Amino acid sequence: MDDFDRHVDDIYNILEGKVDKETIAKELRNWIVNFKVPIIEAKRSIVSKLGGDPSKLTNNEKKVEDLGPNDARVDIKLKVITINSKEYELDGIKRKMYYGIVGDETGTIPFTAWKLDVELRKGDCVEVKNAYTREWQGKVQLVFGNNTKLSLLPPNSVNVKTTIKPAKIVELHPKMGFVEVMGKILEANPKEVMVDGVPRKVYEGIIGDDTGEIPFSAWDVEVNKGDVLRISGAYVRTFRGMPQLVFDPRASIEKRDEDIEVHEIPVTLESLEGKGGFNVLVEGVIIDVKKGSGLIYRCPECGRVLTSTICPVHGKVTPKPDLRIKAVLDDGTGGMICIFNREQTEKILGIDVNKAISIVQENFGNMMVIREMIEDKLIAVPMRLRGNVISKEKYGLTMLVKDFEFINLEDIAKNAENLLEELGW
Amino acid sequence: MREPAWRVFAAEYNSSKYYIKATEPKTPSYVITPLGAKISRLFIVGVLTEVRLITDEIVKARIADQTGAFYLLAGKFNPDSRQLLETVKVPQFVAVVGKVNVYNPKEDLMYVSVVPERVKVVNEILRDYWVFDTARRLKIRIDAMNEALKMDEPTADKLVSLGFSQKLSEGIIIALQKYQRINVERYMDMLKDALKHLLPEYKAMGYELPTVEEEEVAEESSENEDLILKLIDELDQDGKGASYEDLLEKSGLDEEKLDEILLSLQEKGEIYEPYLGKFKKI
């Protein structure tokens, strides 16, 4: 269909068939050829003259590649590539927002939805009316707001042109779209899962490269521990508050005949903000020891920390003594609460729970004594920690410490010399 | 998210001329250094060289590193830090976690200080680690600034795409807008100097911090002290004290000399500094 016919169709559709196409075509030709009126103006005038609503002519239908940073009105047909949800609180009410990646035949784009008219799932095709775009961290993002209307389209009515971005594992983020990573399978466990009543096989495990590790799930693809794979067309989603790499046979997966080193450099806390991390290594200085660190008493039934012998759920109990540390590690790029369990706290303090109890007794029941001992040991001290990091809007980053070590301070002169050499002094 | 505790040397921090004030309660204010550190909180390890009680409630202290000194102001909201500062003997290695504070007597003039959240006595090894840690972070800022200066139209995005962090990239762009000339060379020298002090051969040369030097120069400047005392009296019109910039202008002395005299007078108990940058006779 050439452009002229398309314009005739536009007018015909707005007039809802009240005027036949031949009449419209004649009219339009007259305006354009004889009166040399610009096409948009001509269409408006004809619709108006023939009794239609010219505002319906405005066509905001766009393709992903057309989207700029501040488009106020976007109508678009999309396919959902990934979708994640996140809970947040506004005015004391719990709400849910969604984010992920959508795409069409011209490309992919991250989206955020403050509400959804229809339930969207990965793979759905959807017609979107009245969305808008904004810039977030330097990237254009599509936003479904309060005035956005969504309606589902038939399956596979939208094709997606995928752009695949090569990435190191440390960089992986749910807003990235499709990625290509090369890594070594460090752990892989097969599992049968029912999806929509159909059993499917999934391998779950951990993949690592020279920058870090990430959990993965591989659908209908067999992966084995020790494999070195180049996976092109995987994507990242948030799973249990942490990023996870997902791929299936639609990705191109190449088994490499080489071994790669999975060497870990500590990640910055800034890079974990908003996404958390699985089994990450961080390095920084302890700058605070929080209330609730030291000797605490818990309900023997539920583990709640108690301040008396009454548990709010289990009533009168005999509280069990425990040791823990809630400290703040800061690496100059961000801060994180890190929680050390009893065993780790005992190791740091060099005393066990019973000794802690007797120290408190010697100090006339002052529990602060133990916290002060912890502060003395840890504040201003550089540490290297490993564990899972959860990122929450309100509290920021929290790590349940799996392993810890004090940074060796004997190498400072050597490190200084190396850095000076690098600077060519 | 928690504001990071930046590691910067005193000279970079004290060169800051730009401040972003919090517009809402409970949001942070920031000092922007010439190298784009956007600081709300700092972590410092250095040598406590001086502690003075300004009033019953305010303690002022100096913490020196190899490049200069941080000014600490502990008030009634920092009782623990104040108590520690009042009781500890100088010189002493201390670690401080603190928030930025500025005194802004007039446009184009700003003094920065640090309000401590926590102060702890530490040892020399932790100080050395801080110097190394701070040096390698300074190097990243120098690299980022050099890259930005090379660009025709520097943006945070371009810096991020080169691998610099979002926070630093944003800070670099603000610094470029706010500072006329950024002397990156000066910071490169500072970086090398700081690292050299960590090498065994330099340590063996008996490098220590400048508490002694200050006493030596006190004598020769005694005649200037009378001049400054007189000026403080004259310039203290509103009872709040004479401002530093007025003293600088009227005395005709250079900054270094004036600082020296003001410090000496404060040590002798002749004057005090009720507000940062304001001086009054006792």
Q: How would you explain this protein's 3D organization?
A:
The complex is a heterodimer of chains A (425) and B (282). Chain A has eight helices and 22 strands. Chain A has 425 residues and is of the alpha+beta class. The longest helix of chain A is centred in the first third of the chain and has 14 residues, at 21-34. The radius of gyration of chain A is 30 Å and the shape is elongated. With 282 residues, chain B is of the alpha+beta class. Chain B folds into three domains: 5-124, OB fold (Dihydrolipoamide Acetyltransferase, E2P) (Beta Barrel); 129-196; 216-281, Arc Repressor Mutant, subunit A (Orthogonal Bundle), CATH 1.10.10. Chain B has eleven helices and twelve strands. Chain B has helices at 10-14, 79-87, 124-150, 156-161, 166-178, 184-196, 200-204, 211-218, 222-235, 244-251, 255-267; strands at 5-6, 18-20, 30-32, 38-39, 41-53, 59-65, 68-74, 92-106, 109-121, 242-243, 271-272, 278-281. In chain B, α3 packs across α5 (166-178) and α9 crosses α11 (255-267). The longest helix of chain B has 27 residues, at 124-150. The model of chain B is unreliable at 209-219 (pLDDT under 50). Chain A binds chain B through residues 137-138, 268-271, 273-274, 285, 287-288, 328, 330-336, 375, 379-382, 396-397, 407, 409, 412-413, 415-417, 419-420, 423, 425, and chain B through 1-7, 43, 45, 95, 97, 117-118, 120, 122, 125-126, 128-129, 132-133, 135-137, 139, 155-157, 160, 165-167, 188, 191-192, 195-196, 198-200.
